[in-house]
Amino acid sequence: xxxxxxxxxxxxxxxxxxxxxxxxxxxxxxxxxxxxxxxxxxxxxxxxxxxxxxxxxxxxxxxxxxxxxxxxxxxxxxxxxxxxxxxxxxxxxxxxxxxxxxxxxxxxxxxxxxxxxxxxxxxxxxxxxxxxxxxxxxxxxxxxxxxxxxxxxxxxxxxxxxxxxxxxxxxxxxxxxxxxxxxxxxxxxxxxxxxxxxxxxxxxxxxxxxxxxxxxxxxxxxxxxxxxxxxxxxxxxxxxxxxxxxxxxxxxxxxxxxxxxxxxxxxxxxxxxxxxxxxxxxxxxxxxxxxxxxxxxxxxxxxxxxxxxxxxxxxxxxxxxxxxxxxxxxxxxxxxxxxxxxxxxxxxxxxxxxxxxxxxxxxxxxxxxxxxxxxxxxxxxxxxxxxxxxxxxxxxxxxxxxxxxxxxxxxxxxxxxxxxxxxxxxxxxxxxxxxxxxxxxxxxxxxxxxxxxxxxxxxxxxxxx
Length: 465
Hints:
The chain is α/β, with parallel strands linked by helices and 465 residues long. The protein folds into two domains: 263 residues, Aldehyde Dehydrogenase, Chain A, domain 1 (3-Layer(aba) Sandwich), CATH 3.40.605.10; 181 residues, Aldehyde Dehydrogenase, Chain A, domain 2, CATH 3.40.309.10. Helix content is 41%, strand content 19%. Strands 12-13-14-11-10-15-16 form a seven-stranded mixed β-sheet, sandwiched between helices. It has a six-stranded mixed β-sheet with strand order 7-6-5-8-9-17, sandwiched between helices. The protein has a three-stranded antiparallel β-sheet with strand order 3-4-18, with no helix packed on it.
């Protein structure tokens, strides 16, 4: 992606079908006055939304959950149409949003209960209060889930939400808007902002915006965080990674191979938490490579609308081009292609599933996130060498570790692997109940779990003498 397009998630407001490269719809950007009106409506809506009882806000979440269930097929079809994601994965994304609603419906009362503290005061406690309008700058790769995982806890707390979605998933953004309307969410609680870079900057600088959550690239995060920092408003950044997956010599190799390939091929490799550096002990390298080849051969590119599709197209032409460029750079550094490696000749944005080995531990490659259906297989001399390499680089989103020694694995996960999440004998996943986020240039702040309610909150202390 070029530098300009990458700055603040502002690719053209244009829905294109990745399967065949045809235009679906070009979308009109808001005018400055439209933007102003929508943000002002949120300022007014916040005063009402924050004052209603939590039980009523949670009833609204129940309506949103019902609307998700009733419209899951239509939502999933739109996700697949705009992103190329296999329809089964799109349906799973919608159902995960239902689970998310359930989590906050069932736990918000206990999480938001004031916490009493024993102090010299007669009574002292702290409580979580809403801040106001939270601006969500969201990506295309999980266009419903990424929005919901920040929006739902924000609404439960009493905040209101403005959505600036990626330019190529504007139909998904409109679907979310319609879904909330159908659920009976009052005006002034959620607005959709079809805007590009200049108006996104204006939105961040608007006095009604009290927090910004961005999921995207490091460059986008730095730009948005700087703008938020100038206003001293809260920001949460989830900026991707180059996640390691370590396979120790005592691991269940078949399980590791299945999980590794499935995770890397999900959403055609366009997932920030998918394993991008596969680090295998050299004593099992050949055996594990054979298992990977067997697994990756099961992933055939096919029509993403079909329920049995496991690998669809990439989301955009520029992303496909960037992916091909990075594969060529890896080849130039000595990487050996064992499977795939080429774009598929078609009008859409298709690429073969790919397996590279003989990769050098090149700093540029360690620090570069590769979005696409490619497994990069590295060899480690021993356990210590694997851990050292896993911790190299600027990112720290997630990591996976495969071994049969669970006691040792837990100790390594706690003390020796530097990341926001470590999954043992599984690949990294986001779950409604578990805090999610990274360290280093993978960003800061946490989404999901109880932290999802506290990131955009005024942690308010009350003391009575």
